[in-house]
Amino acid sequence: MNANAIFLPALAMVALTLVVWLRMFFMRVGQMKRERIHPQAVATSAQATARLTDSRAADNFRNLFELPVLFYLALVVAALTGSVTTAMLAFAWLFVALRVVHSAIQCSYNKVMHRFYAYLASGVVLWALWACLALRLLP
């Protein structure tokens, strides 16, 4: 197996993060222009919360720096230790797919239970990825 293949899911997560960032940027700038909100009026998170009414993309953008941090770390550790397996690669791609679903839900219709199930499934997959890695690293 090509050891660099483990970094392709990481690139996919970066692409997802970029897409959500662009959505957040255009939604915020659009609202600020429509409602003539001066940038200084949303200088703090409390001010932004009070003035910017649609926080779905911003909330999702923050989510992409929570569990995914452990995802990125697992991929780097697997690559550096030569521990990449087909199962780990499959879990990595499944994690990405579930995070895409989570982001799509949160950035669009935002049904909490649908989003929760995608989040829960991605968390279980992430822990499975770490379990596979631990089995390869521990004596």
TrEMBL record:
One of its GO terms (cellular component) is membrane. Gene3D superfamilies: Membrane associated eicosanoid/glutathione metabolism-like domain (1.20.120.550). It is found in: Membrane. The keyword Iron does not apply. The chain crosses the membrane at residues 6-26, 69-96, 116-138. SUPFAM superfamilies: MAPEG domain-like (SSF161084). The keyword Transmembrane applies. It holds the Pfam family MAPEG. Keywords: Membrane, Transmembrane, Transmembrane helix. This is MAPEG family protein. The lineage of its organism: Bacteria, Pseudomonadati, Pseudomonadota, Gammaproteobacteria, Lysobacterales.
